[in-house]
Design brief:
This protein is mainly α and 309 residues long. It has a single domain (2-297), classed as ABC transporter involved in vitamin B12 uptake, BtuC. 73% of the residues lie in helices and 1% in strands. The chain has 13 helices and two strands; from the N terminus they run αααααβαβααααααα. 47% of the residues are buried. The mean pLDDT is 89.
């Protein structure tokens, strides 16, 4: 019973929300991009560049300017991907892969230049502190879960209904979805296909940059190489699992987040299982979602991955 109480408690639920936050932001970015017809496997690289930019900005200017800097750099990476995919009409997978490679190499070069003597990671930087929500923090059960969290956690979960509303209840969202399903018909009706795809892909970069910033200046207090640890790809899996819908992606991200929180709690509780098995749990769950579940039911937007002329 004592072991079960350590594995299943409110602390794990609160940790699930924190762990799911960067995955959720990447997944929402994937929803925006792919709903417009542009595949974006570069979310991992956009997150990593956002994390680096946020850490650098926080070190020199403070955590909130650092957060803004991280979001903007992620958006810049999204803009680059949009230019290559929409204007140049390059292969979208190759374009996004190039962004991922750039995000691994560029910080590795810049860290020892900006901080002499440091390699592979930055010094400790100022962070965005958690906040308490009055009244809610004192409510039993609910308070320990959502009453004391990081502001970016709240922003991420608020963005779920906001993006759902934009995509499915507004004219802009209808246009984004139309260029992802049938761009020729949308063009015939006067919708600027290029503009809609630029908006969607750049927004996906902004969201991924926010997720990366959370990792370096909220979840941790410094940037380190490959700190995203595949979260961008897990976000893509969550997007597919959720059928390219924000609320579906949210459910998938919570499942992945719980898997990660559970493995950490299991190791801390001393469960007699090799730790590598627990560390692999979120990634195994990703494969199960893609191969065993989503592949049978999920259908991507019809024009996804197809350049439009």
């Amino acid at each position: 019973m004592e072991l079960l109480s350590k594995l299943f408690n409110l602390i794990i639920v609160a940790s699930t929300l924190r762990i799911a936050t960067p995955i959720l932001l990447a997944s929402l970015g994937g929803v925006m991009s792919e709903r417009s017809g542009v595949i974006n496997i570069g979310l991992e690289g956009m997150m990593l560049m956002g994390a680096f930019a946020a850490a650098a900005g926080s070190y020199f200017l403070g955590p909130w300017p650092g957060l803004l800097f991280g979001v903007l750099v992620g958006g810049l990476m999204g803009l680059v991907h949009a230019f290559m995919s929409v204007t140049v009409r390059a292969n979208q997978i190759i374009s996004a892969t190039a962004i991922n490679i750039l995000a691994v190499g560029l910080p590795n070069i810049l860290v020892p230049i900006i901080w002499p003597g440091h390699f592979a990671m930055t010094p400790v930087v100022p962070v965005i502190n958690d906040i308490n929500i009055p009244i809610i923090e004192n409510i039993p059960v609910i308070g320990p879960v959502i009453g004391h969290q990081n502001p970016i956690v709240y922003i991420a979960f608020i963005l779920v209904p906001v993006i759902h509303f934009v995509l499915f209840k507004t004219r802009l969202g209808l246009r984004i979805r139309s260029v992802g399903e049938h761009p020729r018909a949308a063009d015939t009706l006067g919708v600027n296909v290029y503009r809609m795809r630029y908006i969607a892909v750049t927004t996906s970069g902004l969201l991924a940059g926010l997720g990366g910033a959370f990792l370096s200046i909220a979840y941790q207090s410094q940037f380190s190489m490959a700190m995203t640890a595949g979260r961008g790809f897990i976000g893509l899996a969550a997007m597919i699992f959720g059928r390219w819908k924000p609320f579906g992606a949210l459910i998938a991200c919570l499942i992945f987040g719980f898997a990660d929180a559970f493995q950490a709690a299991a190791q801390a509780a001393g469960v007699p299982v090799p730790p590598d098995l627990f560390l692999a749990l979120p990634y195994v769950l990703t494969l199960v979602a893609l191969v065993g579940l989503a592949g049978k039911t999920a259908v991507s937007p019809a024009a996804n991955g197809k350049p439009y002329v």
